[in-house]
Write a structure and sequence with these properties.
153 residues, alpha+beta, 4 strands
Amino acid sequence: MLGARGARREPRYLKTMTDITRDALLRVPFCGMRHPHRDRARKLRREQTPAEARLWSRLRSRDMAGAKFRRQVPIGPFIADFLCKELSIIVEADGGQHSDQESYDARRTAWLESQGYRVLRFWNHAILTDTDAVMEVIGDAVHDARMAARESW
């Protein structure tokens, strides 16, 4: 079979398994390129803290009022701990290291909010000792976001 410029070209249906695997790896949703934080996000998903594990056990499988949350999601130059894209809610679990980087967290939160996200921050200690209260705050945010979406229709 000849291509547009006369070069020999194999038909599309004759792809090898290597070609199929390579094509699958190259298909990513970030403007045709892999997100620069993708590998770091994967590592964070594998090495979650006890507080993140507790929160994830409550947020996964649409258990929070039907909202779908994903964990360790790259967003722009940052990685969000938990994201509900449908409702634009980000939940952050902050450990002790965050007390030393308050200005960084403030810039990060400001940037995420400028992109239309509502950011909820909880200390790891609060997540581990008062999980129900944390889940109630997240539930209220999900409810408020759903009501705002309905009003805008």
